[in-house]
Amino acid sequence: MEITTMPSSQKVVVIAALAAAVGVLIGGLIGHFGTSTGPPLTEAQEEYLRTMDLMIADQWEQGLDTDNKFILESIDRQKMKEDLRILTEKPHLAATPRDVFLAKMIRDRWTEAGLDTVQMVPYTLLLSRPNVSNPNLVTWEDGSGATVFKSQYKEKVIREDDYDENFVHAFNAYTPAGDAMSEKGYGVVYVNYARVEDFDKLEELGVNVTGTVVIARYGKIFRGNKVQHAQERGAKGIIIYSDPQDVALEGEGPEEVYPNTFWLPGTGIQRGGTYLGDGDPLTPGWPSTDEAYRLKEEEADLATIPTQPIGYEDARIIMEKLGGMAPPEGWVGGMEGIKYNLGPAFLPEFIDFTLKLSTHNYLLQLPNYNVIGTIKGAVEPDRYVLIGNHRDAWGYGASDPSSGTTQILETASVFGKLMKKGWRPRRTIVFCSWGAEEYGLIGSTEWVEEHVAKLQERAVMYVNTDTCASGPMFTSSASPFLWDAIIKVTSMVPGVRGGATIYDEWKDSYLKLKKDAKEPVPKTLGSGSDYAAFNVYAGIPSIDYWFRRDKVKYNISTYAYYHTGYETFYMVSENVDKEFKIHQGCGRVASLTLKYFADSLVLPYSLQRYPEVMAKAIKGLKKKQVDQLNEIYPNFPKLGEAIANFSSSVDTFTANLKNTIMMDPLKARSINDQMMMLERIFIIPGGLPGRITARHAVFAPSQFDGYASSAFPGLADLMYKIDDLQGQELEERKNALRRHISDLTIIVQQAANYLKDFEFI
Fold first, then answer.
1. Whose CB has fewer CB within 10 Å in the chain, the N or C terminal residue?
2. Which CATH superfamily is domain 76-124+365-599 in?
3. Rounded to two decimals, what is the model's pTM?
């Protein structure tokens, strides 16, 4: 058979007819010769395997694989629309009856699709709830003690169909019950986004937040870090609101917000968790199974000050009363007529007013479920390609997570149809519906903690689709090992907004934001969704992608209706994705990504990207930081040398990789495993300094923003405010830095050595 001269049309016919046979043959040969002492493959067998594997690879490269075409044509947007309608009929907070109902529905749908196994996996979790009979409130009292203002604890119902009596009150999970009250005429401070630099600026200006109630706007960083920073600076309570500058850029009038647009009305309130760890707070580092030891609730690392979210309609009534210093540049938000004064003093006309923050949240332990389904691989059933989306929502969750849930339902359905046509993946595909993500990535973290040894040995990669549709622009965060794969896959999928492909649309929007760039590049991974347990904890290459707002037009932190009562089916189907092309595109990308990694003979990792990003991170250090690090630890330059060695090792390995496909299947598998295990080397078993669940030495969430990625995060953490330390505290920090730099250098050098030929240890 002359592959080099066979016309593409003939290749398609041949591959459709022979792919299944090849899978069986390769599987049989690997199974036989990998577990017996029988004779080696004959030359004829080896030639046949090489020929067929080359053909399969060539078909994928050209996008001519008939199965790929079937996938692209089978993702049904009308079906996805109907699924989204069902998923968003009722609010489904974690561990509520509706959440359990949806878990069972997903289980049944995956079973009907033909997955080989489907199971509901329970864990008992510490969760948090507001007291529905005693709502959390922010109130103003006048000089006589009369209450003249009460904040809203639910959104106003704008559309009758949006009402549900069980819709959860606005609250910030894992914050305690308690009261925080100002003095008369004094004791409320506006702290902008409540970032470290915002509190530093207030300190520079002489504004003391100790003993005050602070008010911050949502955005820029994880809400849990806002609470953390307020606690550390001595505040006794924090109010967090959504500012029109972030959620209502085109105006606050009825025609400019929901239901007429995707912008947020003034009563929209963003709910959300505040726990700074990942997983069940009572079983850090271990799965929350029935036999697990649990901390006492008071031992869990939870917020200690009362916290409450509100909408900008209520925030206006607070902010208009603040006097004190005028805000610094960049601190003025979008509420018209509000000066954004810093406080803590109130304006003279409100000198006898008192503000009170009162919360009544409580903790409880409840069972919650993951749903796990598998399609067994025909050739390498012990190698896993995983995809996950969480199921729970703060309300209806039309974008987050239900748009992603529609995708995973449709992807499983299409793979089921593909199996009925005779296809079966080379490697096992695992579908995951996670529980209790919104509380702190709990379901995924507990499952990874329970199966971490098996996953670290066998997992090829993990795809995360938390939110498929909150806007039209494709974006991605990923392990650098997966960057080239997502570029290739998006280049095969038709665009969702008129472009030839999703890649073309991605490139167009990316280059508008980064005018000096030549190609779109995913971000590195931080946290904020279920990929964290796989990548940051276990070192499994992971990718997260979704379709977001247009950041060229709207440079805001996230979509406006995020985690509010207005995140409804109507919002998404009328204002975000009317034709459900975005949902369809999301499903197509997910399905082809799974198939790419499940079926490719040689795993399509982009190894060279990793040392490039590492070297860039080191070069990005400020000169002052480099000088300090060299002074603290003269061996610091050896980290750069180790990265250079790693880069050289990757180059050599990659140059030789093209010959891998001509090798016998067992050697190809061994080389695949060599690549698959590479990122695991960057895992520090005991965690980063002070963070046991953040174990990735190269990329992990920032200590000061749980959403953001930080390169060499341990270095950044240990260098934080080192200039403010003295004496024994300074020496301890320097010793910690010396040890961590040494750890990093050894780890990176181990990665370089790991890519050597097998016979070299």
1. C
2. Zn peptidases (3.40.630.10)
3. 0.91
